[in-house]
Design brief:
With 854 residues, the protein is mainly β. Among the domains are: 76 residues, no CATH class; 278 residues, YVTN repeat-like/Quinoprotein amine dehydrogenase (Methylamine Dehydrogenase, Chain H, 7 Propeller), CATH 2.130.10.10; 91 residues; 144 residues, Galactose-binding domain-like (Jelly Rolls), CATH 2.60.120.260. The chain has 6 helices and 66 strands. Strands 57, 58, 61, 62, 63, 64 and 66 form a 7-stranded antiparallel β-sheet that branches. A 5-stranded mixed β-sheet has the order 35-39-38-37-36, with no helix packed on it. The longest helix has 7 residues.
Length: 854
């Protein structure tokens, strides 16, 4: 981070996971913007440093594909790999001076060190270690001075495969250290994973290095060491052993206590697996002694590292601890690792996780024209259930009151929505219908709102369950049951399935022509010619798995083409016909990026037309309902938004859709074209912050419509505390509340979002969260046995009191029922939210969701 925000305020830049890539924030992480350009969005970034210059301040981003620079003054992202050989651009470590003009230093996976200085204009090879290694480190003297001459002000260090190299002349020469000059031959050997110079290195001579190896008696666990030098790296001594490898060391300047500090983090997630009892360590005496102040308990809110999603070993080692710009006064620090971003407000004593991925992100998007002629858009939200927007009327609502899933991946809107009001939603645990309550039920179940269909397997007789990754309707679907009731879906856990009776039964589509196992279809599309009337007409359903395109004929999949690179999206020509026009479109990870495929069994053809999109990360592909007369293909790019291409023009180029200057820098997760595209030309984008729309006109401004978010109780931004819990030996640290689940009608009635809740059982329990809001709504249950709650908001930046509301939940109703406590803040403000619980013996409070309305 650096002083590059408005009026010199703090800007945070971070490399995140595959979904959100590289982001930056000007408001302490309350909101995030995307960084993209010159191919960055297509790269796997792993390191970010702030370089104060000269010539100008910039952020340097190291990735598996090379290096990029971000100029905060102009917002321009540029390739910064000049001088790096094409075969040696996988950056595993990157270092810059804190506030000096010395060189940048990077280490590649091949064990080579390169330096960069503006007078050179390119990376220069400085040293070679040889063997490939994930386990590397790099560090530069904090106040590196290019004019100081050899000595502490020009010190640099890098390590690879356990060997430590030091330089005192800005990398002009490196020499291996006599104590650490043996190459690690396996992960059981010690390797150096991090190096840090003290903030006052030029006078103290203190350098720390962290090491890692697997435990000889248990290869599933690792161990760590911290070594210290106080004589400018001449000799090192072991000062600490840790139960997990030390993969980040950071030195700070004077903090609020007037002391300089070191901070250390472990390879394993704090308080997880073999790393119990250890959190983020702090040293107040130059690295001699270490203490975590009990902060390991703050990390117990995570449901297993990564919420059960395994972080690859090579990702665990990429982590960093960074002081805020005002650290000397505030003591604020940031800790980033594979599981998320954490912040300490008090010099490393406590840590709180910060949300990066917004809960209103629309991972999938569908649209329909309703009975009133309004354009309606639906978004499968990653945390807020289902989002519905009446684009014509300009009204958005969160459909979460009885949504069985908060975190959703895919959806499909009935092509006959005006009559049947049907949406099919696939999420973290199931497949559910939503039937528009404004309509008289026109479905086999007589249901409105959310409804879990039976999905009884035609083979086993039991319900089919799983996490659907894709769901599509037949183009002639009619939810009322009058005609076609076919839809298809695929979950990770199962083969593709088809239901021909609106979800009452589920038929496994597990046959592969020529034998073998049917793979998971990551993308599916149904041709307009599909007809469930007979086995002879149940044809032309397409599925994509990795690089292969399959066609379903009746109940059997046939491989029709292997593109040799991963397929990232699939669409069928709306004028598809056999034998005249069996055309489908795909987007690809590499090669032409976009191609048409003519699925002619006797003469299949691939027609590429996306070579000028090589630097973009494409997310989805669509064609309008007027493709027959206006043959434009549309693709959505993660950073650049929606682009279009005239497939009938051999000289055409890809053009941005809508007014580029008004498009917000939010990542594109999905997009759709209006079902009446030939008339309204409306393009709908599902972004990280909900729905954005414009017309396919270069002068049409992009309009953001999503103005609220519902955070389920499982959201990472909630810090729960239970200071009076009898088993809590560290009452000042966060502690999980009890999680409960309620299935069936009771769960649907009491727990509107996701059928689970946190349970506060001890008087004095409270939670903290933060965000931007005009109105806050706490979702709970009220009635006999419930306690008293107080919802308070303070200004996030100033701490000023904004308002408070209290309610004795036992007085609300004679029977347990859903209840919302609202706090009106009048205007949109950045807020810190606190909910306090008062309980008499035997009472409790349910916490299901907190809604931020803007």
């Amino acid at each position: 981070m650096g002083p590059t925000g408005p009026q010199g305020s703090q800007e945070i830049v971070l490399a995140t996971n595959d979904s959100s890539r590289v982001l930056h924030s000007y408001d302490d992480g309350l909101t995030w913007l995307t960084l993209y350009g010159d191919g960055l969005e297509n790269a796997k970034a792993e390191e970010v440093v702030y370089y104060p210059g000269p010539p100008n301040p910039m952020y340097v981003i190291g990735a598996r594909e090379g290096v990029w620079s971000y100029d905060p003054a102009t917002g321009i992202v540029s390739d910064f790999s000049a001088g790096l050989p094409v075969g040696d651009r996988w950056v595993v470590n990157l270092a810059a001076p804190t506030d000096g003009d010395g060189p940048l230093l990077l280490v590649t996976i091949q064990g080579n060190a390169y330096t960069w200085i503006d007078s050179d204009g390119s990376w220069q090879l400085a040293a070679q270690n040889g063997p490939n290694s994930w386990l590397s480190a790099a560090s530069v003297s904090p106040y590196s001075d290019r004019n100081a001459g050899p000595g502490p002000a020009q010190a640099m260090a890098f390590a690879s495969n356990g060997v430590l190299y030091l330089s005192d002349d800005n990398g002009a020469s490196f020499s291996a250290h006599s104590q650490f000059n043996t190459q690690a031959q396996s992960y059981y050997d010690w390797a150096i994973s991090t190096v840090a110079y003290a903030d006052d290195y030029e006078s103290s001579g203190v350098i720390l290095l962290g090491r890692i190896s697997l435990r000889p008696n248990d290869p599933k666990l690792d161990r760590g060491e911290i070594w210290r030098s106080e004589d400018f790296g001449v000799t090192f001594s072991l000062v600490a052993s840790t139960p997990s490898g030390v993969t980040t060391l950071t030195a700070t300047g004077p903090g609020p206590d007037g002391l300089r500090h070191f901070f250390a983090g472990g390879n394993m997630y704090p308080n997880f697996a073999g790393y119990f009892g250890t959190g983020i360590l702090r040293s107040d005496d130059g690295g001699l002694t270490w203490d975590d102040f009990g902060n390991e308990q703050d990390f117990t809110l995570e449901e297993g590292a990564g919420k059960g999603v395994s972080e690859p070993p090579d990702q665990k080692i990429h982590q960093d601890i960074t002081p805020a710009l005002d650290y000397a006064v505030s003591g604020t620090l940031y800790y980033g690792r594979g599981e998320g971003l954490f912040q300490s407000p008090n010099n490393g004593v406590n840590w709180a996780q910060r949300g990066i991925r917004p809960v209103e992100e629309m991972r999938d998007l569908g649209s329909a024209i309703d009975a009133d002629g309004h354009l309606i858009a639906f978004g499968a939200a990653y945390g807020s259930g289902l989002i519905r927007t009446d684009v014509t009327a300009g009204f958005t609502e969160l459909l979460f009151w009885d949504c069985p899933m908060a975190y959703n991946k895919t959806l499909a809107v009935s092509p006959n929505y005006a009559a049947d009001g049907t949406v099919l939603l696939g999420g973290q645990s199931d497949l559910t219908f939503w039937f528009d309550p404004a309509k008289t039920p026109a479905n086999p179940y007589g249901a409105t709102g959310f409804y879990l269909p039976p999905l009884v397997s035609t083979v086993t007789g039991t319900r089919v369950e799983g996490y659907p990754r894709v769901v599509v309707f037949s183009p002639n679907y009619d939810g009322s049951g009058a005609t076609d009731q076919t839809f298809f879906w695929n979950a990770w856990e199962n083969p593709p399935y088809r239901s021909e009776d609106g979800g009452q039964t589920a038929e496994p589509l597990d046959k592969l022509a020529g034998g073998g196992t049917v793979p998971t279809m990551e993308y599916m599309a149904v041709a307009p010619t599909y007809d469930p009337a007979s086995s002879a007409t149940k044809n032309d359903v397409y599925g994509a798995s990795i690089s292969k395109l399959y066609r379903l004929n009746d109940d059997t999949w046939t491989l029709v083409h292997d593109f040799g690179t991963k397929i990232l999206g699939l669409a069928v020509d709306p004028t598809f016909s056999r034998p005249g026009n069996p055309q489908v479109f795909v987007i690809l990870h590499a090669g032409p990026k976009v191609a048409a495929f003519i699925d002619d069994p006797t003469n299949p053809q691939v027609i590429p037309f996306g070579f000028d999109l090589v630097g973009l990360r494409l997310q989805e592909i669509k064609v309008g309902n007027d493709f027959g007369t206006r043959p434009y293909v549309y693709v959505g790019a993660w950073g650049e938004g929606v682009l279009r291409y005239d497939s009938s023009d051999s000289q055409a180029i890809w053009e941005p859709v809508g007014q580029v200057s008004s498009r917000p820098d939010w990542w594109l997760a999905s997009f759709d074209l209006s079902p009446a595209f030939d008339q309204d030309r409306t393009v709908l984008v599902g972004s990280q912050y909900g729905l954005v729309h414009a017309q396919d006109d270069p002068l049409s401004p992009w309009v953001a419509t999503t103005t609220e978010e519902a955070r389920d109780n499982m959201d990472v931004s909630f810090m729960t505390f239970s200071p009076n819990h009898p088993m809590n030996l560290q009452p000042g640290n966060a502690r999980p509340w009890r999680t409960i689940s309620m299935g069936g009608p009771t769960g649907q009635e009491m727990l509107p979002l996701d059928r689970n809740a946190e349970l506060a059982l001890h008087d004095g329990d409270f939670f903290l969260s933060h965000g931007n809001a005009r109105l806050l709504e706490f979702k709970t249950a009220a009635g006999p046995g419930t306690g008293r709650i107080t919802l308070t908001a303070t200004h996030y930046l100033t701490g000023a009191f904004l308002g408070s509301q209290s309610m004795d939940l036992t007085q609300v109703a004679s029977n347990l029922e859903p209840f919302s406590l609202s706090l009106d803040l009048q205007t949109i403000q950045p807020v810190m939210v606190r909910l306090d619980v008062e309980l008499d013996p035997g009472e409790y409070v349910l916490f299901d969701a907190l809604v931020f309305r803007r």
